[in-house]
Design the sequence.
């Protein structure tokens, strides 16, 4: 990661016409956008004074002022805040410092892409190679081992697998549509679970979406054809007959080609149970802040977001079960400062949690934090259709599901017990709670990932 002091000369102690004016105690009204000012007195360029900024709340406020300076094209103020942030938030520091450093890099990238603050554009241009995030390409075995390190994904796997097994009990043919970001890493455990049914395993038809434009981490270093072959062989080793199919489709068009292929499949495969397993991929479908499309049917409202269009199309397939698992945060604000606040107050969790399962300097830790950094950069630096990280909270997804004809189905005590047993394998900070009929993964009491299950109403 770039050390900004290599490209930006160190500033002298900031005088009365610089950043200190912002941080000086006075009785004038403060802007509401940045909230209340947490500092008192004049900022001096000394380690002791800089140390007073080394709290999460102060770093967040500095990032907000930096973002506002970029949006207002105030290069002088941006350079001064940049100097402070660079000195208090090293990329190899504690969890709050690494978090702040990732947001700082994302804001620099935003300035470079939007052309605001020419000084920052020059900084990014002369150190582009250092600014670039280097995402690891995983083998299937490496990815499986990597995912097992933390319950971030395993929580949703365990909850969804338990719900799926209950929904297809006694059914001879099960068609699973896996919409996930982790390249079918959930499937071996589910295959094992179905292989051990008292009545014998079902025939499994597994369909996945081969993403055509959206490429978020983790990245797999093999084709889906090769991955499918391995999964079919694994299923055979468990005495489970399975077919694997890839349909090129993408969240950017609400998986239109996938939905059409599923409709065709239903015409020739009557009697199979259709399971749609959505693991942290639906938030890549554009929502209302990206744009809406005209409805071709006589429905109200006449304009639909792609998310609504997808859920309506999914409901028309009469699925046996739909599982929806995703991160419980809201990254849909049009205003970058509000997005920054929301992302900063959610994405501290992976930086805080990583210390419990990966040592400093380890290769896997670099992979892990590069993936989080990619998310931060996409949320902050990108706009329009390029900004694909558009999380919504559980409550908003529940509204969407109910509005398109689904009803929630609760997780059984057995399912909750399976999830708790999995969490026992991880650090004490991880927990689980019930929210109405749903399950929520927590870290130190803060919501992280939700798991929900749905039936046609």
Sequence:
């Amino acid at each position: 990661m770039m050390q900004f002091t290599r490209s930006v000369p160190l500033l002298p102690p900031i005088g009365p016409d610089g950043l200190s004016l912002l941080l000086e105690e006075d009785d004038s009204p403060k802007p509401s956008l940045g909230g209340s000012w947490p500092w008192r007195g004049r900022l001096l360029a000394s380690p002791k004074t800089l140390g007073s900024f080394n709290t999460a709340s102060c770093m967040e406020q500095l990032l907000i002022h930096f973002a506002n300076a970029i949006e207002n094209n105030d290069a002088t103020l941006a350079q001064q805040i940049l100097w402070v942030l660079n000195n208090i938030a090293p990329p190899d520091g504690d969890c709050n410092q690494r978090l702040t450093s990732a947001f700082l890099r994302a804001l620099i990238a935003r300035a470079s892409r939007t052309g605001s603050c020419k000084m920052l554009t020059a900084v990014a241009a002369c150190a582009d190679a250092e600014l670039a995030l280097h995402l690891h390409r995983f083998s299937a075995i490496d990815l499986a081992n990597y995912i097992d390190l933390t319950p971030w994904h395993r929580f949703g796997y365990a909850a969804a697998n338990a719900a799926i097994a209950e929904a297809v009990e006694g059914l001879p043919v099960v068609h699973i549509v896996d919409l996930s970001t982790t390249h079918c890493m959930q499937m071996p455990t589910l295959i094992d679970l179905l292989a051990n049914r008292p009545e014998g395993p079902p025939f499994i038809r597994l369909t996945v979406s081969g993403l055509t434009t959206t490429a978020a981490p983790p990245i797999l270093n093999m084709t889906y054809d090769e991955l499918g072959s391995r999964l079919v062989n694994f299923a055979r080793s468990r005495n489970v007959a399975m077919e694997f199919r890839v349909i090129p489709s993408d969240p950017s068009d609400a998986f239109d080609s996938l939905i059409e292929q599923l409709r065709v499949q239903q015409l020739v495969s009557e009697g199979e149970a259709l399971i749609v397993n959505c693991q942290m991929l639906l938030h890549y479908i554009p929502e209302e802040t990206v744009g809406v499309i005209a409805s071709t049917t006589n429905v109200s409202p006449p304009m639909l977001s792609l998310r609504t269009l997808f859920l309506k199309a999914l409901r028309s397939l009469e699925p046996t079960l739909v599982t929806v698992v995703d991160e419980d945060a809201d990254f849909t604000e049009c205003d970058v400062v509000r997005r920054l606040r929301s992302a900063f107050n959610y994405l501290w969790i992976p930086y805080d949690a990583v210390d419990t399962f990966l040592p400093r300097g380890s290769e896997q830790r670099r992979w892990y934090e590069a993936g989080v950094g990619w998310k931060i950069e996409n949320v902050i630096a990108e706009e329009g259709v390029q900004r694909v990280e558009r999380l919504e909270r559980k409550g908003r997804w529940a509204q969407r599901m109910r509005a398109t004809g689904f009803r929630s189905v609760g997780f059984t005590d057995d399912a909750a017990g399976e999830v708790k047993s999995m969490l026992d394998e991880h650090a004490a900070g991880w927990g689980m709670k019930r929210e109405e009929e749903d399950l929520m993964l927590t870290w130190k009491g803060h919501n992280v990932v939700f798991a929900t299950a749905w039936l046609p109403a």
Notes: The chain has 17 helices and 13 strands. The mean pLDDT is 86. The longest strand covers residues 446-456. The two ends are 50 Å apart (CA to CA).
